[in-house]
Every structure is written in C-alpha cells, then in structure tokens.
Design a protein that fits this description.
alpha/beta; seven-stranded parallel sheet; globular; Rossmann fold; 413 residues; binds 1,4-dihydronicotinamide adenine dinucleotide; eight-stranded mixed sheet
Length: 413
C-alpha cells in the first residue's frame, strides 16, 4: 500500500537522525542482530502507532528485519517528524503520518493502517485499540495480540477488559520495570525540560515550577527541575504520593494555591482539567503552562480561550493568551506532550530499554497468544532481567552474583 507522508525528499536528514540514535541503543542493536537471522515475525503484518521520531523508526526497522511487514502511523498530531517518516519509507516501511495533521487526517492515517489487516499491533495511548473495538471491530478477529506503550493507554485497556469487551491479548509494556522505572521517570524527567527549555530559551533556576501529578513521570520531572535550580511545588490527589513528595523535599499544595505562585506549570497526571479557569484567574503575569501527559486535556484550552481577550502565536510552539487585566499567560505546544511536540522525545539510551520491552512483548504474544486469552497482561519478569543485563553489559558494567551459600541462606525458612 502507498505511504502517505509529507515529503520524500526529506529522507536524508531522517536517515541521519535514525543512524545517530542507533549508536546509543545497544539493546535494540543486540536484538536486531539476533532476530534478523531467525526472522520470527515472517509472514506477520504489524501496525505500530507511536510518536514517529528516530527511535520509533529504529524499532520499526528492527521488527522489519525480524521478518514483519511493518506499517507505522503517528500517535499524536504534533509528534511526527517528517524527515524520519520519509527515511522509513525509503527503508521499505509503509507510513501514514505527517507533522501537524488535522484530527480528520489522524483518523484517516489510523484507518489506512488498519486497512492492511494487521496480525499484531503496537499502540501508544490506545487510539488504535479503540478503533479496533468500535468502527473497525470487524478486523479484531485477525489480531493475535499487541502491546501498549503508555500509562494512559493501559488505563483504557483495563477499562475495556473490565467491561468484558477486550477482544485480544494486550501486554501492558508500560508496566514492565524496564519501561516505567526508566522511561516514565528519567526519560520524561529529562525530555520535558529539554522541550520547555528549547521552546522558551529561558532559565529554569530560581523559578517556581508547579508539577501536577507525582506519579512516575511527575517524580522524574520534579527531580530534574530541582537539579536545574527550580523551587518545585507538587499538586496531587493521592495522599500517599503527596507525602512521598514532601519527603523528597518538595512543597505540596492544592492547584488553587500553586496557581498564584507558579512561574512554570507542568501537568503529568493522565487526568483532565488539571488547570482550569479558576486557576488562570489568579496566575502571575508571564506564567507558562505545558503538559507531558498523553492527551491534551490536562490544561483546559476551551476555558483558556474563553477567559482570554486575545491570543496570538509569539514563537514556534508558544501561544500567548492576554487576560482582561492585561496579564499574559503562555501555553506551550498547544498543551500536547511538550517533550515530543516541541522536542525529540526521550533520550535514545532510555528508549533502548522501552523498545526492547516492546520487542520482547511482541515476541511473547507471537509465541503464546493462543494460551493468553483476551486479557491485559504483563511482560514476563525474567525478560526485564534479560534486558537490564544486556544494558549493563553495553555500559561496560558488571554486578555480583549470589554464591551457592548465599542462595541457600536466602532460601531458608
Ligand atoms: P502515574 O499513574 O504513575 O501518575 C499519575 C499521577 O497523577 C498519580 O500520582 C495520580 O495520583 C496523579 N493525579 C491524577 N489525577 C490528578 C489530579 N486531578 N490532580 C493531581 N494529580 C492527579 O502515571 P505516569 O506514568 O506518571 O503517567 C502520567 C501521564 O504521562 C499519562 O498520561 C502517561 O500516558 C503519560 N506519559 C507521557 C510520557 C511522555 O513522553 N510525555 C511518557 C510516559 C507517560
């Protein structure tokens, strides 16, 4: 099937980006070497719906080298990089994605990908799975299973499963140790600040940074904001997470209080309406807002538009909202995930782990789907150990091994 991309002539720059990240993804490199010989996915069609940048492209190529027929679409209108999409097409992967697509185009891309009648899927956020359980439900019978990349997608999958509607096994790749401990925490921790800093070209030190949500992503973003010299405030709804933030050394308060003092607001909750009109009303002149949660629902853009007397784009990925008392509030990257919409996403070394989880999850589905049932499952834990061991070796690090005597001590009752 013919790809739909912006411009094939951008491919050389895309190849450069993919070749660069390959250097820093040794686990995926090891997988590529091993499975391009055995080609376990031969004869299988796989649709990958993910943020289409260089690391994702490399994952697509690894699946292709392992025998799969691969189709890639983006998982967010602003996170596709057109040069990377072009390079993937040159490398023989079918792509339906371009940067800044409309919502209608986004739907067309997902549907085109499904028209190829995939056997397996890799989803990020749950839009593809949702389509396979609604308008394209006729294709679900063909799917042997798949995996889901992010927290929000896993929540949606579990809701489908609880309603008894899930039609094929899905591995919650997000919930593997080698994913959330590193990707959500350290990946988001670094890449959100990269996105915010390259977009604003401003200093973080000395600013009051308000982080909504102290889950895995929030913890990473707070830790890195502190390292950059910010004074960090956490907002939460879970008392345990809130007390954890206190003992990690952060101030905790409701958003209504934080709204008055914040210079930069970052939402990472997976929930909607975190920053709303009552918060815009008390924010300081010049306050900046960004989101790194999966959907652009955490900062209420409808209300922000309603309470503003004028808006304009003041710099790429920065929109100014003037309030009736002349205060100016700024929204970065349309409230979409700032690290991907206004940056390159997580560092390659981190995605090396996440995408190894994706590969082994798909392999597990391939070999075990008949016995898995239509459930949301975890990747077997021994694969976490295997991935981490390859990563350690690639870093030139080794660790101790239990002696026989230690093993027997630990197994005593
Ligand atoms: P998590 O479940 O570990 O943490 C979410 C936290 O937000 C929880 O502590 C929860 O109590 C809190 N929360 C929920 N509703 C809230 C509200 N109304 N006000 C304040 N706090 C609230 O989830 P995780 O893994 O940190 O993911 C968060 C979001 O980030 C999800 O949408 C996920 O899909 C997305 N994500 C984005 C990435 C990126 O690259 N930008 C990478 C990984 C995940």
């Amino acid at each position: 099937m013919k790809s739909m991309i912006r411009d094939i002539s951008l491919a050389p720059q895309g190849h450069d980006k993919i070749n660069w990240v390959k250097n820093f993804m040794p686990v995926l490199g090891t997988i590529n070497e091993e499975f391009s010989k055995s080609k376990p996915f031969a004869g299988k069609k796989m649709v990958i719906t993910m943020h289409l940048e260089a690391k994702t492209a490399y994952l697509g190529l690894v699946f292709k080298n392992a025998g799969a027929e691969v189709v890639v679409t983006g998982s967010n209108p602003l996170s596709t990089q057109d040069d990377v999409a072009a390079a993937l097409v040159e490398d023989g992967v079918t792509v339906f994605a371009w940067y800044d697509c409309t919502n209608e185009e986004y739907d067309v891309f997902l549907n085109k990908a499904l028209d190829t009648k995939p056997d397996m899927i890799v989803d990020d956020g749950g839009d593809l799975v949702s389509l396979l359980h609604s308008k394209r439900a006729e294709l679900a019978a063909n799917i042997i299973g798949g995996s889901e990349e992010t927290t929000t997608g896993v929540i949606r999958l579990k809701a489908l499963e609880a309603e008894g509607k899930l039609k094929f096994p899905m591995i919650a790749a997000n919930d593997a140790y080698c994913k959330y401990l590193f990707d959500n925490r350290y990946g988001t921790g670094q890449s959100t600040w990269d996105g915010i800093m390259r977009t604003t070209n401003l200093v973080i030190a000395g600013k009051n940074v308000v982080i909504a949500g102290y889950g895995w992503c929030g913890k990473g973003a707070a830790m890195r904001a502190k390292g950059l010299g910010a004074s960090v405030i956490i907002t939460e709804i879970d008392p345990v997470k809130a007390i954890e933030a206190v003992f990690d050394g952060f101030r905790v308060m409701p958003m209504q209080e934080a709204a008055k003092v914040g210079d930069i607001f970052l939402t990472l909750t997976g929930c909607n309406d975190i920053i709303r009109k009552e918060h815009f009303a008390v924010m300081k002149n010049g306050a900046m807002m960004a989101n790194a949660g999966h959907f652009d629902v955490e900062i209420n853009k409808v209300e922000l538009n309603e309470v503003s007397i004028s808006t304009r784009s003041v710099r790429k990925n920065i929109e100014e909202f003037v309030q009736s008392d002349n205060r100016k509030l700024y929204l970065l990257a349309e409230g979409r995930l700032v690290n991907l919409a206004a940056g390159d996403g997580h560092p390659a070394e981190i995605m090396d782990l996440s995408f190894a989880v994706q590969f082994f999850s798909a392999l597990h589905i391939l070999n075990n789907h008949k016995n898995m049932g239509a459930h949301v499952c975890l990747m077997p834990n021994e694969i976490n150990q295997k991935i981490a061991a390859i990563k350690l070796a690639s870093l030139g690090l080794s660790i101790d091994e239990l002696s026989v005597a230690q093993s027997s001590y630990l197994s005593q009752s």
